[in-house]
């Protein structure tokens, strides 16, 4: 923080400006990092760390200014341990939040899945995220078994699978109740229903992952790992596990079908 201030935030300004010369928007992963970061002394365990505060007014101000100059949008990934005031602060400055379907529940009102009209308007809404497996894998609990195989679970495997299944079942039951999902629906039909639900929310932006579009199953990134898992090196595949080329994606009937579900959902009545 001190070095950034001493340099008038030039490194950060240059990074943002460079990105926005080539894109109409930017998504800031872990946007809370512009407010504070957990610093750990070299060679020490995480418990020996502490929060180091950053001048968020300067950093967010630069981010918003560069986006305004470029005519671009900014999305902040505000999941996890993010204080409510941070979300309000970002919203007031025109920065969209991030809402992931599997994490959206009415925690203060019964605990069920968040009804579509209660979702945030100023957000990027999606079914999954890059830190979870594609929806086909998530529905099968692949992420829990992967974390167990890597020694990342903090409770017994069966307990973790049961808790995860309860959350997924709550959402699938909600889709059944709303007539979006039939009892005998297969995985692809379930993925379509989940994305159709997103079109019922007031979210300004919707996101469908490339992996969901082609029926992939393996996760691209496993938080908490560096060399234990091939993060960002997992080839995109179809449901049969065979790698896909870009041309395959462009010709994919699955991708076209998912795009049509979202388009029809946005065009038609809720």
Question: Which stretches are poorly predicted, pLDDT < 50 over at least 5 residues?
Answer: none
- What structural class is derived from the secondary structure elements? mainly alpha
The helix count comes to 11
Q: What is the overall pLDDT average?
A: 95
Shape: globular
Termini distance? 47 Å
List the helices and strands and how they pair.
Elements: H1 2-6, H2 10-20, E1 25-28, E2 36-39, E3 50-53, H3 56-70, E4 73-76, H4 84-92, E5 97-100, E6 123-126, H5 135-139, H6 142-149, H7 157-177, H8 187-198, E7 205-207, H9 210-214, H10 246-250, H11 253-267
Helix pairs in contact: 2-3, 8-11
What can you see in these coordinates?
This protein is mainly α and 270 residues long. It has eleven helices and seven strands. A three-stranded parallel beta sheet has the order 5-6-7. The model has no long low-confidence stretch (mean pLDDT 95).
Structural key phrases:
single chain; 270 residues; mainly alpha; three-stranded parallel sheet; two-stranded parallel sheet; 7 strands; 41% helix; 10% strand
Describe the structure concisely:
With 270 residues, the protein is mostly helical.
